[in-house]
Model the fold of this input.
Amino acid sequence: MGLEKRDEDRGWRMMGSSLFGKNFLINSLWLIEKQASGGYYIRNAGTGKAMDLDDEMKDQGTRVQGCQFLPGNSNQCWDLIDNGGYYLIQNVTRKVHLQLKDGSSRDGAEAQCASYSEGDENQLWFLNRRSRTSEEIQRVLRANPILSDLSERTNDENDKALYIVVPSRLIEDMYAWSGLDRRMRRPGAFDYEDYPIKFKEVVTSYRCDWMVLD
Done:
């Protein structure tokens, strides 16, 4: 499931797709945040947009889109209901379920919500965990004596920061995008002497250009 940009007034188009080019790979990563009052916010890692149920209800299916994240907006609050290893994604207020229009398996099939249909595989979703949570990553940082300075900063200043472990496919994209894959390498060296410094710069630049997460 990913997002594709259209005009800002109508929100970002949400669709199912097997396409994983650079932009679409990033826009297919989602941050799921549990709320103290119940339910989850589901935010896109590439755009920061939240999964949002359109205000206009339709009998044949209500559009789901990516919109500006608005904490407390019931259109953006979802329940994840375990269904034997798969999940039903249900809007907390309207009790409708996420599905792909017409049960289509084609690339670009529009996401929508409709009433629950028992046994309908079109409403079942597999959540593929791509990263540790921010809290898990912070615990690793704090427990590592080599990273004591960073751990201290994380404790004092960045408790609310969002972190992800970057998927290997995205690392490959960064590697090619930066031109590092075309640099000369020496046997026995870690690619080349300034590689760690250079790759840190690449990750930072890539994040600023393409992602909203830290």
Remarks:
- The mean pLDDT is 78.
